[in-house]
Amino acid sequence: MTTPQNPPAAPLTRLPEGKMPELRVMPAPSDANVYGDVFGGWIMAQVDVAGSLPATRRANGRVATIAVNSFLFKQPVFVGDLLSFYANIVKVGNTSITVCVEVYAERNRLQADVVKVTEAQLTYVATGPDRKPRQLPPLDSLISRD
């Protein structure tokens, strides 16, 4: 029988090879409860930041979060974990961009224990200076022509 102090062992994995994380951050004691478990709301905020980065690049400007389509906490996150947030666009509409975010924790970095702790899907909408939805630019306008 496990207790909150001794969560079941998570299956060990690796960070995704050949991909760069959008964000890497280590939660501080102020991001956790008195037991050292990081608040889910803090993780959600970091996921939103990580997801907004590829959405902002695709929109070539401001975006706003309009939906959290799914959010799954797979394992607890602890103070001292080094979190890596990987985000990729999974769907593009006329004004909206849907992004999948996966979060991995490196624990006990001397032994390189890695566990997937969170996965989420969020939708962003491109907005103009008036904060109203705007059309996404065509992809070819985003490609640099050197």
UniProtKB/TrEMBL annotation:
InterPro entries: Cytosol_ACT, HOTDOG_ACOT, HotDog_dom_sf, Thioestr_dom. Keywords: Hydrolase. One of its GO terms (cellular component) is cytosol. The keyword Methyltransferase does not apply. Gene3D superfamilies: Hotdog Thioesterase (3.10.129.10). PANTHER family: ACYL COENZYME A THIOESTER HYDROLASE (PTHR11049), ACYL-COA THIOESTER HYDROLASE YCIA (PTHR11049:SF5). Belongs to the acyl coenzyme A hydrolase family. This is Acyl-CoA thioesterase. It comes from Telluria aromaticivorans.
